[in-house]
Amino acid sequence: MNYSKKLFKQSLKEKKFFNYYVFYGEENFLIKKSVLNVARFAGIIEKEESISFNFNSCSYEDFNLDEFENFSKTAPFLVEKKIFVLNYVDFSKFNLKNFNAIQNIVESVDFNLILIFTANVNSYEIKKSAVFKKLVNLKNSCCVEFNFEGEILLYKAFLKKLKSYGLTISYENFLILTKRCGKSIDFLNLELEKISAFVEKGEIKKQDILNLTQMQIENNAFKITQNILSGKKEKAIKIFNEIYIAGVNVIQIFSAICFCFVDLYRAKLLQIKNIKFNEILNFYDYSKKEFRIKNAMLNCKFYSIEKLRRYVVLMADLDFKLKNKNMPKNVLVEQFLFAI
Questions:
Q1: Which pLDDT tens digit goes with each residue over 100-132?
Q2: What is the C-alpha separation between 216 and 241, in angstroms, rounded?
Q3: Where do the domains of the chain lie?
């Protein structure tokens, strides 16, 4: 069934859980936060970094039905529920036959198994899907859309957070920030964290924003990276072209994408070794760039180490071509994005 964000939050407070959740929309930060909230309220994990035998996730591209069945048929440990998260689902390719096979497994177990689907797609696109239509009509489902909040609501939320740091920002300057960095809470959090490291107290001024933020290069590079990893080539190419047409140098864009892949790969390696965020800075120099590795730590759980390693190698190969081939650099990057 379709739920508003308010009703979804209320259901968690009342400890009312569903077998199927679909979290979709443009606001990836709130989608990830909602997944973690379901796990927390269900008593499966205590905090974001927690590891639990009762919680598992993978990307839609890496999903394996047999592995899912093995996880599903193992009873939960010390709690009553288990959660499996299927991230970045491409509902345009997700057919009823595949969903029915998953549904049969969910409904065959004798304990409460929660299956969560996430998708960075708008309501117009997802509502075309036969699988989504079936999920919406299930009594034991909860489908919630998460899109960017309006500027006023965002401003009030961030102003409250900044005041706890002894900082403030005018509404006019906040609009300049959203214009440069977008309305994603994920990225605004990172940008404000970066600014607050330099502006210790008082008001964040326009010049601080212009000096300390980049005009969506890092943010868009991360979006390109996510779309590459999710198999959404056309979307990755579209974002790349938008930045390029805006006048950003190809090498700058490529470098930002490389950093994203390297950060994710490093974060995944350290996560496998169970190294916490505050220990990471002992291994790598992220001076004044802590937000990058923090973002990577939040997102690396969705990808396998093999997949990330493969893309790091592919980026190195593209770097060689950019330096040695006598072709327009934007064409080389486009060809690369289309071919992977």
A1: 999 999 999 877 899 999 998 878 789 889 999
A2: 13
A3: 5-145, 151-212, 217-339
